[in-house]
Design brief:
Low-confidence stretches: 23-35, 363-380
Strand order of the largest sheet: 1-22-21-20-19
Structural class: mainly beta
Protein name: LisH domain-containing protein
Number of domains: 2
CATH superfamily of the largest domain: YVTN repeat-like/Quinoprotein amine dehydrogenase
Number of helices: 6
CATH topology of the largest domain: Methylamine Dehydrogenase, Chain H
Largest sheet: 5 strands, antiparallel
């Protein structure tokens, strides 16, 4: 028996619901031809369906619904924005085949987060890149990316497995100065761990709910900024100092209270004045929020918690007529253009991908007056304009700027639900991004067009792919592009282009 919504069943349902099973004797005598009943019977026989196939019940998918959804999909494609004239790269290995390798874990469980970090592990001569992966059983795996230790038998081998770092599953982590591990968990705890000495340096409980993201920024003078985002509608900012004796994590330098839960965080340095900003997105808002962290804030150590000013915001849906259209759930900076951002959104039933240019607050040089302007007709018109008109013109100018900053707005066709956790990662050459899904497929999206050009199907079909990392591993001629993905099928997969296709 075909599936309940197979094409044959839908056609049979259409024939039966539109009277093609009713035989009219008068019509048969008159035409001496094929009756409506014979049409349905012939179709059922040719399709191998039982005589009662195609019965219509409330809620069943009909042919009319399929056609309407196809029309809506075509309309959506026409409204998508995919610009090929903005300097974005094209996907370079369209015909390439990819090889996937499952990494063997000690005790397989749902994977929550994966990344590649350089760590100075005990027993190794120097810092090396390792795969870090956290799972739902509170483990944090350290997996080699090359034959580093003498006892290794395979390339991707678990060399460490931490089980006591957190009292709950680890949702996010990072490594500072190739030695200090910062990890956050579902209980709201943030832990600072010295990998070299094998001891916990600090344990903080500054959040009351899930801490879903931790990011850091290290300045040349040894200042380390760390920010954590929790589902208690709060972002905590820590200021740490690297010394020869180590690093400490004291009370939050600042705490940002939000009106909804934060989803993604990024530290970024202004390309002009080199001021540091914290970029964040939050649930039920289509904006990216810019919080300034200038050097002047560091002098306020006696006024903790300090106030981090909101200096700007950028609307990712400037033309939307609804108050909220999606949530920017995951953000990633392009490796070759630090002002270009890829954003995976929470839209359903399929993930929408945005590639946008960051619109930072304009830097102003102290003591320098703006260049003089020549009077024009528009200037004289503005002199007679009311404050409401001037405000409307300014809002329109901001909307035009935000609209022009969106280079790509396309559907990834990656299934999502309201409970999904979108993830996005750039290719090393910046020619595209990878996104996760709820159907076990990792999709590659071309940056210049927004088209799906690659699908990796190493996970169990229909399973949730929870986390992604993309980048290059190896050195010299052995340097290769890798995609590392973890899912709720208990699989950690490393995918690379096959040698024969490169």
């Amino acid at each position: 028996m075909p599936p309940i919504d197979s094409p044959a069943i839908i056609v049979a349902r259409y024939l039966r619901s539109n009277g093609y099973e009713e035989v009219s004797r008068a019509f048969l005598d008159e035409t001496h031809g094929l009756t409506s009943g014979q049409t349905l019977d012939a179709f059922l026989k040719e399709s191998g369906l039982p005589p009662d196939a195609g019965s219509v019940s409330p809620g069943d998918l009909t042919l009319e619904q399929v056609l309407r959804e196809k029309m809506m999909y075509d309309l959506t494609l026409n409204l998508e924005k995919a610009s090929v004239d903005d300097g974005l790269k094209e996907w370079k290995d369209k015909p390439a085949q990819w090889k996937s390798t499952e990494i063997s874990l000690t005790k397989p469980s749902n994977l929550l987060q994966v990344a590649v970090e350089s760590i100075d592990l005990p027993g190794t001569p120097s810092a090396h890149p390792f795969i870090l992966a956290s799972s739902a059983d509170r483990r944090l795996y350290v997996i080699s990316t090359d034959f580093i230790l003498p006892e290794q038998s395979t390339r991707f081998e678990v060399v460490r497995s931490f089980t006591g770092l957190q009292d709950s599953p680890i949702l996010s982590f990072l490594v500072v100065a190739r030695r200090y591990l910062v990890c956050t968990g579902m209980s709201g705890m943030t832990v600072l761990y010295d990998v070299k000495r094998g001891q916990i340096l600090s344990t903080r409980q500054d959040h009351t709910k899930y801490v879903v993201k931790v990011v850091s920024w290290t300045r040349p003078d040894g200042q380390v900024w760390i920010a954590t985002a929790g589902w208690d509608k709060k972002v905590n900012v820590y200021l740490c100092h690297l010394t020869s004796e180590g690093i400490s994590m004291d009370e939050p330098f600042a705490s940002i209270q939000l009106t909804s839960d934060p989803e993604s965080l990024l530290f970024f340095e202004h390309p002009d004045d080199k001021d540091l900003y914290l970029l964040l997105s939050r649930r039920d808002s289509t904006f990216i929020y810019y919080y300034g962290l200038p050097e002047s804030l560091v002098t306020l150590l006696d006024c903790r918690p300090a106030t981090v000013p909101l200096t700007a915001r950028q609307n990712l849906a400037p033309l939307a007529n609804a108050w909220t259209a999606f949530t920017p759930s995951a953000m990633a900076i392009c490796p070759h253009d630090s002002t270009l951002l890829a954003i995976a959104t929470s839209s359903t039933p399929h993930m929408k991908l945005l590639i946008v240019r960051l619109l930072f607050p304009r830097a102003e040089t102290p003591g320098v007056d703006p260049p003089p302007t020549t009077p024009s007709a528009s200037t004289s018109m503005d002199a007679n304009a009311t404050p409401a008109v001037l405000q409307a013109r300014e809002a329109l100018a901001v909307q035009d700027r935000e609209t022009a900053a969106i280079y790509v707005h396309s559907s990834t066709m990656a299934p999502q639900t309201p409970y999904s956790t979108p993830a996005v990662a750039w290719r090393p050459d910046g020619s595209g991004v990878w996104v996760n899904s709820e159907d076990g497929v990792v999709r590659g999206i071309e940056a210049s067009s927004g088209r799906v050009v690659k699908t990796l199907e190493a996970h169990v079909p229909g399973s949730k792919v929870r986390c992604l990392w993309a980048g290059a591993l190896g050195e010299g001629e052995k340097k290769r592009e890798y995609i590392i993905s973890g899912g709720f099928d208990h699989r950690l997969i490393a995918s690379e282009p096959s040698v024969s296709s490169t």
